[in-house]
Fold:
Amino acid sequence: MIKGFGILEMLIALSLGLGILTVIIAHSTESGKAARKITGNQERLEAIFHTVDTIKSDLNKCGMRLQEARQFFNISCFSSSAGTFKCEYGLADELLLESALCGQQTLKVEQNDFFKKDKVILIYNLGAGVWELNEIRDCLSGALVLKNALKNDFGRNSPVVLLKKVEYKYYPTQRILKRKADKGNFQPLLEEVSDFYVTFFPDANSVLYRIEVNKKEQVRGYIFLLNLV
Structure:
């Protein structure tokens, strides 16, 4: 005669089952925490690498297409202070197809997709020793309409350089490093930043930067601003 489980046997079985279930749940929870930690670390490393690549890219371009103008005019392409730095470079350039006179608000140039509304341009003439900044109000076929009238005369083949300015700024209370391009707003670039500083060495035309994340990981970079040489 087969007897069913007694109350004692059932309690023992239930206890064992609950014990095994508890172990499985605890193991799953720890595995989930470990997986989230690994994912978090990987995402943080990717964010750090992306930030470093972005900084290096901007600094390597600093002063690009402005080498000639910088030799003759007082044009600053890099500046820094506590927790921030700015750099500027030429994104594209064209030559005037026709002379432009003082008071004129149009420039005849080849069509260029980089020349767009509200972008800042540099116009200069080495022979006359003049230069000025202006903004594009509109782009027509083969011509740029300026927001402001020219203050100088510029002969044919005078360079017109489309400028791009980027700025990095560290927000210690938010622990965020942000980047801004041209007239846009500051956008988060890297979070959990516990320290950020930049040092410029004008004699060597080089920049030293350091990023500290979570008071643990530190990334340092030393970059020569080759376009400023």
In short: The first strand starts at residue 78 and ends at 81.
